[in-house]
Amino acid sequence: MNHNYFTQQDVERLEEQAVQIRRDIISMIHAAKAGHPGGSLSAVEMVTALYFHVLNIDPQNPRWPDRDRFILSKGHSCPVLYAALARRGYFDPAILNTLRQYHSILQGHPDMNKVPGIDMTAGSLGNGLSVGVGMALSGKLHHQDYMTYVMLGDGEIQEGMVWEAAMAANHHNLKNLVAIVDCNGVQINGWTNEIMTVEPIADKWRAFGWRVVEVNGHNMKDVLTALHTAKTMRHPTVILMRTVKGKGVSFMEDDCIWHGQAPDDEQMVKAIAEIDVGGVV
Amino acid sequence: MGKTLATRMAFGHEIIEIAKTNPNFVVCNADTKTCGLEKFGKYFPEREFSFGIAEQNLVGGAAGLAACGNKVFLATFAVFASMRACEQVRTFVCYPNLNVTIIGTHAGLQVGGDGATHAAIEDVAIMRAFPNMTVVQPADAVSAKILAHAAVDFTGPLYVRLHRNPVPDVYDPETYQFVWGKANTVADYGTDMTMIVSGILLKKALDAAAILNEQGIKVRVLDMATIKPLDNEAVIKAARETGAVMTIEDHTIFGGLGSAVAEVIVENCPVPMQRIGIQDKFGESGDPELLYRDHGMDVESIVEKAKALVARKG
């Protein structure tokens, strides 16, 4: 077992890493002239904690059978995942600026057969947790002790299939499965709870037999603690991380316009400057 | 010959038999009586996963198992596999090219009493449209049983289309051979026309061909068990050598075998064609033989339409 716990030094290292990931997100979406900055920025701390501290993975051997799995069910937020994989050594960070371009490995939504380190193709919302159930079942079947983490959006849980998977995870007692809901409160056309109420989210997951951990998704220490707690639970566990969509770039925060829009040249410069000055969020 | 067993039961039972000596696959079930595989867990509890009445999760879960290196069989009704879980099959099995065999049972009008909601009449059209997908349907219990072995050895997305009710065997287990993507010539009376058949209507085609032979019309009958990838060579050869092609399937005439054959013929060697299949309407409850008659899929209708087709050869 590695990375069960963390030091203050780890927290500081990860916070610095998160700044780099934010910068990458902005520059790659700017280069692509399209993409989804809002939900990428809200997930930065969690994805950074996973890829740079928690996940038992080997960038030199991306398909290592005993590795921990991560599924980005909210696949449109792939810039955050691509940036983490590149910085973790799965591929050259120079490739990040080919996002969404012809013949790039970095498709608009993640493709497991194109990008080293992507465990599952994703993009159509509501599907990732079911795939995670299958991966967790396989781990149990073959007596492997890897964990499977699935990140969903809070808007995404409006999809009914999520709840089919939630029911199945409890039925099969998948304590090796962790769902992470990025509760940034905003979806493409506005506030999530104005479009379709998802609250009370915690009660819903509890009713389906899950253990619930609620956390501030931008506090690295809290995120690490939540991940540690989730791994030690004897039941499927969901981490509800309260986040801000567009976090770290003032003009993108809490604004659904930035769900799926690229910054222009001026906005890119401003955003990068804010991230550099703001540093750790 | 003459024995009767449903293709679904022959296939499912054989999968259970194979599992006794082959530990390298798992089974995912929704709560349906499909092909006998709902009993798989009794024999192999560790290798069977129950997903309940939740077909989207069934396919998503199967994709996850396959992404971890498992060969997965999943079984449900063809209507649910092709439509309730359509996108999961497309985006999470076919697009990542995962090793999942989707068993769709209760295909076509042969479902009978359950009626239109449960009769899959468009599943081949749907499955055939997905890149990476292979589509296959056996004609009888003999070929279904042999197909089970081929499916276990197959790698990649596969759709196996099976029927509900018993059908007479047309094949001899001693001599039948299955080859992926190859048509099988089942009868060859001559070169007046070719019937290309997929699935359980093969028996009706053979009966019709025998009647036509007595009336002086010499028919060749091909069993196109693999609908995708289609045996283009066999289709072109049939068109060139016999000058008229009829397709026969328990499926809507849009998008299934008939369309697949027509695509090849139009692009390579246009000849008169006739598609036998479900006319553009939903099924209904009733004796399948009566439903087949309504849609011109019974032996008598096939004979009449064959004569009209040959007359069109000019």
Describe the protein in words:
The complex is a heterodimer of chains A (281) and B (314). Chain A has ten helices and seven strands. By secondary structure, chain A is of the alpha/beta class. Chain A has a five-stranded parallel β-sheet with strand order 1-2-3-7-6, with helices on both faces. In chain A, strands 4-5 form a two-stranded antiparallel sheet. In chain A, helix 9 links the parallel strand 6 and strand 7. In chain A, helix 3 runs parallel beside helix 4 and helix 3 packs across helix 9. The two termini of chain A are 30 Å apart. The mean pLDDT of chain B is 97. Chain B has 314 residues and is of the alpha/beta class. In chain B, strands 3-2-4-5-7-6-12 form a seven-stranded mixed β-sheet. Chain B has a five-stranded mixed β-sheet with strand order 9-11-10-13-14, sandwiched between helices. In chain B, strands 1-8 form a two-stranded antiparallel sheet. Chain B is globular. Chain B contains twelve helices and 14 strands. The termini of chain B are far apart.
